[in-house]
Amino acid sequence: MSQPSYPTTRLRRTRQFGWSRNLVREHELTVTDLIWPVFVKTGQSEKTPVDSMPGVFRWSIDLLVDQVQQAADLGIPAIALFPETDPAKKTDDAREAVNPNNLICQAVRILKQEVPEMGIICDVALDPYTSHGHDGLCVDGYVVNDQSLEVLAQQALVQAEAGCDVIAPSDMMDGRVGFIRKALDAAGFENTMIMSYAAKYASGFYGPFRDAIGSTGNLAGGSKKTYQMDSGNTDEALREVELDLAEGADMVMIKPGMPYLDIIHRIKSTFGAPTFAYQVSGEYAMLCGAFEKGWLDRDQVLMESLLAFRRAGCDGVLTYFAMEAARLLRSV
Ligand code: PBG
Fold first, then answer.
1. Is 290 helix (H, G, I), strand (E, B) or coil?
2. CA distance 42 to 104
3. Is 200 marked active-site?
4. What are the pLDDT digits (tens) for 71-119?
5. How many angstroms separate the CA atoms of 328 and 332, rounded?
6. Are 314 and 264 in contact (CB under 8 A)?
7. What is the whole-number distance in angstroms between the Cα of residue 21 and the centre of ligand 1?
8. 304 C-alpha to center of ligand 1: Å?
9. 108 in a domain, yes or no?
10. Do 257 and 280 contact (CB within 8 A), yes or no?
11. From CA 188, how far away is CA 190, in angstroms rounded?
């Protein structure tokens, strides 16, 4: 790009006024870019706080309906559901994951009936249901790939049957997108979408989430490094995305978000597919910690953190700030 130099060009000219800054802004965040991750619990009229995520709660289904209605009224297009499973229902083989009447399936059925306009995304991974806290089945301490695929596909099926719109495999097993796509198609769910957690890193930023779904203790210091990606890799993220798209993913996700903006940018510019980021629990906790201390301005910084995803190339972002951001967008 060639442009005359100073003093003919003065980039500060367009920054003088609010209206001219608005006019030349390249990227914008709107409410339709927001996906709200929510935690579901058993019981009636129950709402428990997640200690490491100030302002985030686990909701029983009856209370969740009202929350989701509020999200819909604000214009949020979709939610992502995560269950806090009763520890008594956690087993080595994750059989609760494939129970058509599990907490997630119940929530999907009721939400689809009560707030039909809201898109529902369900996670496919076994960690909320396994006694060992891993996303797949464990044999001799190793998370086995191909045996896990069978259970994951079954989990996707019960969720699709319950009325879930988007299946989001977050397990990082090889071949799972294709395996799930085939299973969905064979059962007549050819219109059920897949948003794959395509580039999901073995990150320390998931800590508070594991607390929220009650899987921290289960993992017992174990790591997910044999299936989630190594933080040092970039090319491998492109290979993951390429495979997932070839296997039938409609949308891809990068996770965590803010520490991986380079990955988002490269994936969007390489494939041009619908691309999403997950601003994960640890990012949320970190920001809230600084907000609570008064070290960062809450409204400004949370909006800036979300706009960064749009600038990096995301079509949308999963964020625990979704409701708050939607309200802020409304007020301007
Ligand atoms: C489960 C899953 C995790 C998250 C989303 N789905 C945790 C993990 O992989 O251990 C993390 C989300 C967050 O930290 O907000 N497979």
1. helix
2. 10
3. yes
4. 999 999 999 999 999 999 999 999 999 999 999 999 999 999 999 999 9
5. 7
6. yes
7. 37
8. 23
9. yes
10. yes
11. 6
Query: Is residue 305, in this structure, part of any structural domain at all?
Result: yes
Query: Among residues 15, 30, 33, 48, which one has the least CA distance to residue 212?
Result: 48
- Return d(Cα 286, Cα 68) in angstroms, integer: 25
Exposed, middle or buried by CB within 10 Å (0-12, 13-18, 19+), for 300?
A: exposed
Cβ(135) – ligand 1 distance below 6 Å: yes
134 ligand 1 Cβ < 6 A: no
Contact 151, 98 (CB under 8 A): yes
What is the domain range of residue 100? 31-331
- The encoded tokens of residue 237 equal 């993220």
- The pLDDT score that the predictor gives to residue 222 is 78
Q: What is the average pLDDT score of the chain? A: 97
Instruction: Judge whether 254 and 263 are in contact, CB under 8 Å.
Output: yes
* DSSP code string of 149-183: HHHHHHHHHHHHHHT-SEEEE-S--TTHHHHHHHH
Our answer to whether residue 41 is catalytic in this structure is no
User: In the chain, how many domains are there?
Assistant: 1
**Alpha carbons within 13 A on the beta-carbon side of 279:** 30
Q: Please state whether the predicted TM-score (pTM) of the whole model is above 0.85.
A: yes
CATH number, domain at 242? 3.20.20.70
Q: Is 10 within a domain?
A: no
Chain segment 176-221, per-residue pLDDT in tens? 999 999 999 999 999 999 999 999 999 999 999 988 988 777 786 6
A 10 A CB-CB count for 315 gives 15
4 within a domain of the structure (yes/no): no
Quick check: CB of 281 below 6 Å from ligand 1?
A: yes
CA distance 300 to 305: 9
| Catalytic residue (one of 41, 200, 224, 268) | 200
In this predicted structure, what is the pLDDT of residue 219?
80
